[in-house]
Design brief:
- The protein is mainly β.
- It folds into 3 domains: about 15-65, SH3 type barrels, CATH 2.30.30; about 70-195, no CATH class; about 265-415, Sandwich (Jelly Rolls).
- The protein has 3 helices and 33 strands.
- It has helices at about 1-15, 130-140, 285-295, and strands spanning about 20-25, 30-40, 40-45, 50-55, 60-65, 80-85, 90-95, 100-105, 110-115, 120-125, 145-150, 160-170, 170-175, 180-185, 190-195, 210, 215-225, 230-235, 240-245, 245-250, 255-260, 265-270, 295, 305-310, 310-315, 315-320, 325-330, 335-345, 355-365, 365-375, 380-385, 390-400, 405-415.
- Strands 9-8-7-6-10-15-11-12-13-14 form a 10-stranded antiparallel beta sheet. Strands 1-2-17-16-20-5 form a 6-stranded antiparallel β-barrel.
């Protein structure tokens, strides 16, 4: 008995084991070990029996290798989800909206009170395979009015009404339509997309970006980790806390780079989903084409899976279908563009047919890259200089006169900020 008590006492005196992490540094190197602590000054890891300290300014990202995503992840509560204008997405339950704020219970970080103005959309029902693409399309719409998204009575799809959502309760959603208050049963409401005043530009989110095991994303500042607990201050000022075992990645790179999937676009056009004159040309109406084949951020087309190239999953990037053109303002702020290009694994099983797409990247109308990428090619790492340039344009075109396999991933696509002189 004395021996047992001695062992228990000895174990309690030892420092708590940290989470296994891979730390990516600004110089391109990586370090692995057990995370002991993190604050705004230093990251401490235990590696090969030694405690190492890394300056926080050197760290781009931490990947928590022992934590699990997918079916073993934290489960959502009721299938509800909140989308913030800073890019955060949180699985939630008990969503209610008053005039000034939205209250909910986050699966990851507990009870939240979020000012209404920072929320872009609410999904009030489980996504399911039937409505996911339509919901994604509604979320991308620019509107000064709130969009109340309802399930059609025959259950075949989603429809919307434009007006003002004044409150959301467990039983009904109050909706002002042409000045008249209309209570809509909560069971009919799939979600709400909140309007934005004309001319208001999307802000480029900075700070820390956390990705959790259930695909939740949270942005904030002042991240601290100790004793397997993390603390962070949300972008709306609420202090939040949860266990590190739920965390997949912590991205600390905002002051050094910007991801294309975060930046507001100057132009985003799907010009055609199939080549003119092909067998598939004209089979889908333009609205359906836009819903199915418009570019996706951090997800593949027609689904919620992450980008994947030859078995490797990427948290960030764009999935772009031919024939599409996207452009962004650079305004001379960036030094280089880095990405890995390839046909997504979701469709690359057609590799034997040798299908390909054409990727053209321009800066201020100068062609920086013009390349065919086929389904059987290995992922292509690219680094292109854009110093002093005003605009960046990416065009994904049909490379072989066919739209087969035309899911081009621009994985981990990021712009490095120009160094201050």
């Amino acid at each position: 008995m004395k021996l047992l008590l001695f062992c228990v006492s000895l174990l309690s005196a030892l420092p708590a084991a940290g989470s296994d992490v891979r730390v990516s540094l600004q110089d391109g190197t990586q370090k692995s070990g057990e995370l002991q602590a993190l604050d705004d000054q230093v990251v401490r890891i235990q590696s090969e029996g030694q405690l190492q300290e890394i300056g926080a300014a050197e760290v781009l990202q931490l990947e928590f290798q022992g934590n699990v995503s997918g079916s073993a992840a934290v489960q959502t509560s009721g299938g509800q989800r909140v989308y913030l204008r800073d890019g955060s997405e949180l699985s939630a339950g008990d969503i209610q909206r008053t005039a000034n704020e939205i209250g909910l219970r986050s699966v990851i970080v507990g009870d939240l009170r979020i000012p209404s103005g920072v929320v872009s959309a609410l999904r009030l029902q489980a996504e399911g395979p039937t409505f996911g693409e339509q919901w994604a399309t509604f979320r991308q719409r620019e509107s000064e009015k709130d969009l109340l998204i309802v399930v059609k009575r025959d259950g075949t799809g989603l429809d919307f009404l434009g007006g003002i959502v004044s409150s959301i309760g467990a039983e009904a959603v109050e909706f002002l339509l042409d000045g008249e208050k209309v209570p809509v049963p909560a069971g009919r409401v799939y979600g709400v997309v909140f309007g934005r005043p004309a001319g208001e530009k999307a802000e480029v989110a900075g700070g820390v970006r956390l990705v959790f095991s259930n695909a939740d994303v949270l942005r904030g500042s002042d991240l601290r980790i100790a004793a397997d607990r993390l603390q962070i201050v949300s972008t709306w000022g609420q202090s939040l806390e949860c266990g590190v075992e739920q965390l997949l990645t912590a991205d600390l790179s905002a002051e050094r780079l910007s991801y294309l999937s975060d930046l507001p676009v100057l132009r985003e056009d799907l010009l055609a989903a199939d080549p003119g004159g092909s067998l598939l040309d004209g089979l889908l109406d333009p609205e359906t084409q836009q819903r199915l084949f418009s570019p996706r951020r951090d997800r593949v087309l027609q689904g919620s899976s992450r980008l994947r190239l030859r078995g490797r999953e990427y948290q960030r990037g764009l999935c772009v279908h031919s024939h599409s053109v996207l452009s962004w303002a650079l305004d001379g702020r960036f030094e280089s563009l880095e990405l890995t290009a390839g046909i997504d694994d979701e469709v690359a099983f057609n590799a034997a047919a040798g299908h390909s797409v054409r990727l053209v990247i321009r800066a201020d109308d100068e062609v920086l890259l013009d390349r065919l990428i086929s389904a059987h090619d290995q992922p292509v790492p690219l680094r292109l200089m854009v110093a002093g340039r005003s605009t960046l344009e990416v065009e994904v075109d049909f490379g072989d006169g066919s739209s087969v396999c035309d899911w081009l991933d621009l994985a981990d696509a990021k712009l490095w900020l120009a160094r201050q002189k």
